[in-house]
Structure formats: C-alpha cells, structure tokens
C-alpha cells in the first residue's frame, strides 16, 4: 500500500510542477504548445521503448521459468505421470 501512495504522490507532484511551469512560462502560447507537443512525442517514444524492453524481459523470465520447470519435471523420473502414480 505504501508503494501506491508513493507513486500517487509522485504523479501529483509532477502534475503540479507541469502546471506551474506552464503558468509561469516566459514563452508565448504558441511556443509553449509546440514545446508540449515535442515533449509529449518524446515521452511517448520513451514509454513505447521502455514497454517493449519490459515485455522482452518478461518473456525471457517466463521462458527461463518454463525451462526450469521442465528440467525439474524431467529430473524427477517419468515426469507428471510419476506424481499421479504416487498419489
């Protein structure tokens, strides 16, 4: 529950910071809109790249887990059939 509060606090702080930045920006409205557009495209690209890396990492972890389970089953004898027979 503490992690959720931390993330919420960070998001709220980020939102307040962005709002104050826009409010006190020394640029014109058009320049500010252009800056926001460029920054949002960069953030979108970073988020996409990060999510792709995360998905690849999860896939690798799942594959290693599957290999570990398969190896453990093979090392116990005849596999799942042995477990059923023991019950």
For this entry, give a set of tags.
single chain, 87 residues, mainly alpha, 0% strand, elongated
Largest sheet: none
Helix content: over 70%
Poorly predicted sequence stretches spanning 5 or more consecutive residues? none
| Order of secondary-structure elements | HHH
Q: Helices and strands: which structural class?
A: mainly alpha
Plain-language structure description:
With 87 residues, the chain is mainly alpha-helical. It has 3 helices and no strands. The longest helix has 47 residues, at 29-75. The two termini are 40 Å apart. The model has no long low-confidence stretch (mean pLDDT 82).
Explain the layout of strands and helices.
Blueprint: H1 2-23, H2 29-75, H3 80-86
Could you give a quick summary of the protein structure above?
The protein is mainly alpha-helical. It has three helices and no strands. Helices cover 87% and strands 0% of the residues.
């Amino acid at each position: 529950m503490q992690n959720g509060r931390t993330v919420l606090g960070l998001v709220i702080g980020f939102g307040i910071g962005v709002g104050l930045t826009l409010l006190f920006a020394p640029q014109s409205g058009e320049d500010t809109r252009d800056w926001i557009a460029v920054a949002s495209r960069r953030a979108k690209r970073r988020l996409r790249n990060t999510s792709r890396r995360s998905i690849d990492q999860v896939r690798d972890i799942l594959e290693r887990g599957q290999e570990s389970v398969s190896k453990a089953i093979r090392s116990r004898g005849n596999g799942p059939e042995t477990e059923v027979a023991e019950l």
